Amino acid sequence: MMLRFAAPALTALTLISGPVQALDLSAMSADERDAFGVQVREYLLENPQVILEAINLLEQQQAAAESQADLQLVQNNADELFNDGYSWVGGNPEGDITLVEFMDYRCGYCRRAVPEVAKLLQADGNIRLVIKELPILGEASVISSRFAVAAKQVGGDEAYKQVHDALLEFGGDATEVTLRRLSDGLGLETDAIFESMNSDAVTEEIARTRELAQKLNISGTPTFVLGTELLRGFLPADQMQQIAAQVRDQS
After folding, report:
1. DSSP codes, 40-89
2. First vs last Cα of the chain: how many Å apart?
3. For residue 212, how far is the Cα from the chain centroid?
4. Which of 186, 105, 92, 182 is nearest to 145 (CA)?
5. Can you tell me the distance from the alpha carbon of 59 to that of 64, in angstroms, rounded to the nearest whole number?
6. Could you tell me which residues come within 8 angstroms of residue 55 by beta carbon, excluding any fewer than 6 positions away?
7. Does the global pTM surpass 0.70?
8. What is the C-alpha separation between 132 and 107, in angstroms, rounded?
9. Which of 183, 189, 191 shows the shortest CA–CA distance to 167?
10. φ, ψ dihedrals at 38, nearest 5°
11. Sign of the alpha-carbon torsion through 155, 158, 162, 165
């Protein structure tokens, strides 16, 4: 039986432009389906760019869906993200956009992000920075975060910033010896910090950040939230500046 189609590319074109008309393959006989499959195969072999166009369109649709899902996650967790009452706040505290960074002291890309974030804050004086401790790279990460959080709870924001910067620059294994040396070198209340490291208050703060990261489907560091945008991974300052401009334009 000869099959007649409006064009041999009916199904192939449907992949990138939507269905031309309803096509019920189940209504075809086995021979008709085989013949139709041959025509589609021949068309795709002659026009392989159609496959690439379909893949590109699918990737665009998936990216748009993921972006919309991330936007909703940020909106649903805005209070915990931007105003949790315990995370360290820097940059311009009165800035019109907030940049939240989830970080781990053993993360190489977190260390790479330090100068990029500094460039961003220097170039744009209207960004508020929030740092969230998310130790996910083993026990040394947990010890470092506990030490940093304890330093904040004992010595305040200035002590935290000193410890935070020193730990990112250090990048080595966090042990009692190295942390005591670091703390003493900064002139902090070392004994009080060590006494607080395993306190319920420190445990709760880190646990709340972990819970928030789970809600946001964050599995790696650094992860940023810039305004309404959830940015998964390292980004240079110029790209973050572009995103900040887009966020402002949309607000």
Report:
1. HHHHHHH-THHHHHHHHHHHHHHHHHHHHHHHHHHHHTHHHHH--SSSEE
2. 61
3. 12
4. 105
5. 8
6. none
7. yes
8. 14
9. 183
10. -65, -45
11. positive
Report d(CA 191, CA 207) in Å as an integer: 24
- pLDDT tens per residue, range 17-71: 444 455 677 778 888 888 888 888 888 888 888 888 878 877 777 776 677 778 8
What is the token pair recorded at 175?
């042990």
The alpha carbons of the chain give a radius of gyration, in whole angstroms, of: 26
The H or E element that residue 245 is part of is helix 237-250
Specify the amino acid at residue 59. E
| Total number of residues shown for the chain | 251
pLDDT digits (tens, 9 = 90+) for 180-224: 999 999 999 999 999 999 999 999 999 999 999 999 999 999 999
Place of tokens 């506990």: 146
For strand 223-226 and strand 97-103, is the pairing parallel, antiparallel, or unpaired?
A: antiparallel
Listed in sequence order, the residues at least 6 apart from 207 whose beta carbon sits closer than 8 Å to its beta carbon are: none
Tokens 């099959």 correspond to what residue? Answer: 3
